[in-house]
Amino acid sequence: MRLLGWLFLATLSLVLMVQLRLADGALTSPETPWGIVGFELAFTQVRAAEIMRVWRSMGVTEGALVSLGVDVAFLLVYPFMFRSLVQLLRRDDGSTLQSVGARLASAVLVCIPLDALENALLWRMLVAGASTPLALVAGVAATIKFLLVLITAAWCAGALFRRLFPRPAHG
To answer: Which DSSP letter does residue 146 get?
Structure first.
């Protein structure tokens, strides 16, 4: 049953990720090669304003708003997908790896408020103009979110590797 739940969340995450990539495709250019991710990690008013200027000149500012809208659905799914995957891969063997997994299963849910805060701040800048406080807080929230996702994904890869290639028992 847990596997089916994870498969559902993984499929929904994949569908939403594809939608995000499609929406984000219009936001990329030589000046904005990272699209919405570059805006998430702008950190300063100057960089955020430059990205917004490029998007306005390309006529894709509405596309950025659409991307942020789709991301609201995505942020409600992908953390639970990662949590479910960690729970599927975890074993209660008392090892440090498994203890870290237990903490990550909870910690990855912090991505939800971080991503929501980041989206709200980016939306505000798109509507009202760039500012360093908004860009800085959005960038910090995005950085922590990306780190949590990266660490959780790395843990999952390590746990899967251990499942597929267990160490031989010495006896």
So the answer is: H
Distances (CA, A) of 109 to 38, 103, 104, 114, 145: 23, 11, 9, 9, 10
Q: Which residues of 30-64 are buried (b: 16+ CB within 10 A; e: fewer)?
A: eebeebbebbbbbbebebbbbbbebbeeeebbebb
Q: How far apart are CA 91 and CA 10, in angstroms?
A: 21
- Interval 132-169: pLDDT, tens: 999 999 999 999 999 999 999 999 999 999 889 988 87
165 secondary structure, DSSP code: S
The CA–CA distances, whole Å, from 34 to 39, 40, 81, 113, 167 equal 8, 10, 24, 23, 40
pLDDT at res. 171: 55
Q: What is the DSSP letter of 136?
A: H
Structure tokens at 122: 């980016």
Give the pLDDT band (50/70/90) at residue 93. Answer: confident
Closest CA to 36 of 14, 6, 65, 12: 65
**Predicted confidence band of residue 12 (pLDDT cuts 50, 70, 90):** very high
